[in-house]
Amino acid sequence: MTELELSNLVTIKCKQQVIRAVRFNIDGSYCLTCGADKKIKLWNPHRQLLLKTYGGHANEVLDAAGSCDSSHIISCSTDKSVILWDVATGQPVRRYRGHASSVTCVKFNEESTMAVSGSVDNTVAFWDVVSRRQEPVQVLKDAKDTITSIQVTNNEILTCSVDCHVRLYDIRVGKMISDYIGQIVTFGSITHDGQCYVLSCADSTIKLFDKDSGELLNTFTGHESKDYLLENAINEKDSLIISGSASGEIFYYDLISSKCIKKLLHNLNKPVISISHHPTDSYLLSASEDEIKLWGTSPMEE
Questions:
Q1: CA-to-CA distance for 179 and 51, rounded, in angstroms?
Q2: Which residue ranges form the domains of the chain, and what is each CATH number?
Q3: pTM higher than 0.90 for the full model?
């Protein structure tokens, strides 16, 4: 299994105080880093190239995402705002101010016509990025506490919250399924086949659920959450679940057996909170303090 021969290919000091999130773009050729320095940086991590810096938030940037054609970036911040950026010019195109508190997470829909943001104000807001409309198109108010993460597929939205629930919204029929997990859910992913969701919980576990039945299929343990909002990732083959850890390690778990089959050390005792897996290849990005590392089997072929 080549997946286990991962090594650290690149280390980049981002000079952003602390990296709050690292995100591959749609095809995995670029990545975004969100900084406590109020900026977003666009990189080619494979070549260690800083391509552009986006400044305009008034406080720490907590999350960002690239559009499907890589022409725009959407970002969110503790300044309560969501900003739509023009990638090429580096300028903010629109600034959305509908949230009453820090905005923790943001995603585009598949066509990148809509941005979806989650906040410490317990709401999820939908922004039409095509029109000039400033107010949210819709606001979901089902959660009773902070929204920690959002995933958007072509017709579903998965939201996770400190209220120990995950909520799956079916956009086509307008229905919502709420599942009580019993632990604070710090991050949720959906497997590439759309069958399962993978939840990072504050009790240092990751839980794998069947999306349709709500059945708990597997629990993964070994990593340490402490009080960090750890993220998880799923490899491109849906065979491995990946997690950062307060210990500074990255854990690879076998999705079927739930065994930890690989540990990578980013930085001992310096928490790895944000990770991002390449969409189609075995590359992984991890962030710890002010640096990101690219892991993979071999340097990317030109």
A1: 41
A2: 7-297 (2.130.10.10)
A3: yes
